[in-house]
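Colleagues,

For the teaching module next term, I've prepared a clean inverse folding example: a structure given as tokens, and then the sequence designed for it. I'd like students to try predicting residues themselves before seeing the answer, so please don't circulate the second half yet.
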């Protein structure tokens, strides 16, 4: 049957005309403000002390001596990876000119779920850098992955640099509570291999973390005695420093494409938050994207204002997707209380429609773990994870009095990202969360009964 098309509205321009029409963009060299670009030395602002320390630690490798391992500590976006990557890249170039064969690889603990996956990734990155045949991740034991890594370093390199970014996030979901986190085993096995001289060549570990306490307290005693890094601290940036960092990338945009107040404004917004240079750069890029979408030739302050919400949301989603499974279950429980408890929350004298009381969230945590046969951890652990999510600014932890000497209670507030968006994000990520949502009426009644009794 021939489909009746009916009367068609005139398309103003053909697809070809649209694709080939004039292309306007505010970006001259967008790469400069893309997330993973390692910029040249002359675009690094400040950080002289940290640069000097990292240089002095790496330098012995160029003379055949073993550098110490390093722990670069400090909040997100303060230049830890940038400094480590820039010094490593330069050292490799100098090494090549002196016949010292060096290579560096970087792996981020945030995106890795297990020790096996992380070691495979390191091995794979060396294989890629050295143009070697890739070996498979599956069907081989973790210890043979380590062996392959040590063989590569031994056979092809005088010296390897392994940057382990945000390593404290590599906890390893499938471990039970008595086992140390995955990062403890990784650090133990890598640093021990050097100690017992498993190879003729050697490597150094550069670990970066936002949370040195979680990292160091997660090490078991055997790791503690083999991994003794030199620590280098990175503080967050103030508005002036952020303005300088952004000004050094001004040429990412065409000459007249940025209003004069855009860079100072982006710097001020980022400084008010965490003093995070990544956030500042992301905000500037997103403001440019918005101007482009509107087909405007100049980025205005209003575009930054608009971009702010989007960038903040992306950050929260990124954290949620990458925290350990138990933290996700805890957050899911609290978000479910808020999402399905709106009626009760609205009626309450002490709570608001943006909150979820901690005790009810914990009851739901127990209910969800029973429902999906997930390992149930203590209330103490639940409260600790939620406190951590507060420090990552996923939720806000608030303590409130009920008045009339009825005591104080804790509540979680959802203002950066709605509880609904959190529930959706998690349900898309893991089918156990989607299962819990299947019987919506049951879930609602569990939440509401618990809120009534609160
Ligand atoms: N001093 C600086 N000069 C120029 N650019 C900087 C500086 N510090 C950070 N940046 C830029 O900010 C972004 C984030 O930096 P980087 O990835 O090094 O942060 P980090 O401390 O490793 O963060 P995280 O802990 O989240 O991994 C990168 O684009 C980096 O180039």
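(Answer key — instructors only)
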């Amino acid at each position: 049957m021939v489909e009746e098309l009916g009367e068609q509205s005139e398309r103003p321009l053909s697809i070809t005309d649209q694709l080939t029409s004039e292309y306007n963009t505010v970006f001259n060299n967008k790469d400069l403000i893309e997330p993973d670009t390692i910029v040249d030395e002359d675009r690094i602002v400040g950080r002289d002390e940290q640069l000097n320390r990292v240089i002095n630690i790496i330098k012995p490798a160029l003379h055949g001596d073993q550098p110490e391992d390093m722990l670069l500590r400090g909040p997100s976006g303060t230049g830890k990876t940038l400094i480590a990557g820039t010094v490593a890249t330069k050292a490799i170039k100098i090494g090549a000119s002196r016949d010292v064969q060096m290579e560096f690889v970087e792996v981020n603990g945030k995106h890795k779920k297990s020790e096996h996956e992380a070691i495979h990734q390191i091995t794979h990155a060396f294989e890629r850098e050295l143009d070697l045949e890739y070996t498979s991740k599956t069907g081989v034991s973790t210890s043979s992955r380590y062996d392959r890594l040590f063989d590569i370093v031994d056979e092809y390199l005088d010296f390897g640099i392994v940057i382990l970014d945000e390593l404290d996030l590599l906890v390893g979901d499938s471990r039970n509570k008595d086992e140390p986190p995955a990062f403890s085993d990784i650090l133990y096995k890598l640093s021990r291999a050097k100690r017992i001289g498993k190879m003729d060549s050697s490597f150094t570990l550069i670990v970066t973390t936002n949370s040195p306490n979680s990292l160091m307290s997660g090490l078991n005693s055997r790791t503690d005695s083999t991994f003794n890094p030199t620590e280098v601290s990175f503080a967050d940036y103030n508005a002036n420093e952020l303005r300088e960092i952004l000004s050094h990338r001004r040429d990412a945009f065409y000459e007249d494409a940025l209003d004069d107040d855009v860079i100072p404004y982006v710097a001020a917004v980022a400084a008010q938050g965490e003093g995070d240079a990544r956030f500042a750069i992301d905000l500037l890029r997103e403001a440019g994207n918005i101007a482009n979408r509107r087909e405007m030739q100049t980025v205005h302050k209003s575009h930054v204002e608009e971009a702010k919400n989007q960038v903040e949301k992306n950050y929260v989603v990124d954290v949620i997707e990458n925290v350990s499974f138990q933290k996700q279950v805890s957050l899911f429980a609290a978000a479910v209380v808020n999402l399905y408890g709106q009626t009760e929350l609205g009626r309450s004298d002490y709570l608001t429609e943006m909150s979820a009381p901690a005790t009810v969230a914990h009851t739901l945590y127990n209910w969800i773990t029973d429902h999906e046969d997930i390992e149930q951890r203590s209330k103490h652990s639940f409260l600790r994870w939620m406190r951590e999510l507060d420090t990552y600014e996923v939720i806000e932890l608030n303590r409130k009095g009920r008045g009339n000497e009825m005591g104080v209670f804790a509540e979680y507030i959802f203002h950066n990202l709605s509880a609904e968006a959190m529930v959706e994000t998690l349900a898309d990520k893991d089918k156990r969360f989607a299962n819990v949502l299947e019987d919506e009426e049951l879930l609602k009644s569990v939440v509401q009964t618990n809120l009534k009794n609160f």
